Amino acid sequence: MKVNDTGRINPINPYQRSMESQRQDQMKKNTRKDEVSISTEAMKLLEAQNSGKIDQERAQRIQSLKQQVSAGTYQVDASKLAEKLAPYFKQSSEN
């Protein structure tokens, strides 16, 4: 007398099989594709970068500053420096 059917290898419940296929179908339907959105500010920056206007102005400013520093004529504006450093010192003194 046979107690176990040895011809079966790893039997799966038909209900479980149908549930798994339904889950897989739902996963395929629910998956969303990635989306990218670019803000208007980013678009403006991209346009300006592509035009080369900002790069040329910046390069000229950097070259001018390099010449002033090498000639020893560059002057630091103490009031602007203090304005930029003041928030840093206020934060560090509060902590």
UniProtKB/TrEMBL annotation:
Domain Anti-sigma-28 factor FlgM C-terminal intervals: 34-85
Region named Disordered: 1-35
GO-annotated biological processes: bacterial-type flagellum organization; negative regulation of DNA-templated transcription
Keywords of the record: Bacterial flagellum biogenesis, Cell projection, Cilium, Flagellum, Repressor, Transcription, Transcription regulation
UniProt key word Repressor: yes
UniProt cross-references to Pfam families, sorted A to Z: FlgM
Transmembrane portions of the chain: none
InterPro entries named in the record: Anti-sigma-28_factor_FlgM_sf (IPR035890), FlgM (IPR007412), FlgM_C (IPR031316)
The keyword Kinase is assigned to this record: no
Source superkingdom: Bacteria
Compositional bias of kind Basic and acidic residues: 20-35
Family per similarity comment: Belongs to the FlgM family.
The protein, known as: Negative regulator of flagellin synthesis
Organism: Paenibacillus sophorae
Gene field: flgM
